[in-house]
Design goal:
By secondary structure, the chain is an all-beta fold. It has a domain of 35 residues. The chain has no helices and two strands. It has a two-stranded antiparallel ribbon with strand order 1-2. The termini are far apart.
């Protein structure tokens, strides 16, 4: 997956989506300091995002069999 850039993003949170599975998330912040010098800081990459809590995809209906 190619890096995603959220130019002008101002949110303090990011909600992971399916496209993030098997990727590593990093954060890069660009800002101007008190003397108006452009600064940049980056986080280390996260562990790979794993896929959990999906809605079951089984379309086969389950029919109970009576026990006699």
């Amino acid at each position: 997956m190619k890096p995603m850039t959220a130019i002008g993003a101002a949110a303090s949170t990011y909600l992971l989506i399916q496209a993030d599975v098997d990727t590593r998330i990093t954060l890069k912040v660009n800002f101007a300091d008190g003397k108006n010098h452009v600064e940049s800081i980056s986080s280390e990459a996260s562990e790979k995002i794993i896929n959990i809590n999906d809605t079951p995809q089984n379309k086969t209906p389950l029919t109970p069999t009576p026990i006699i």
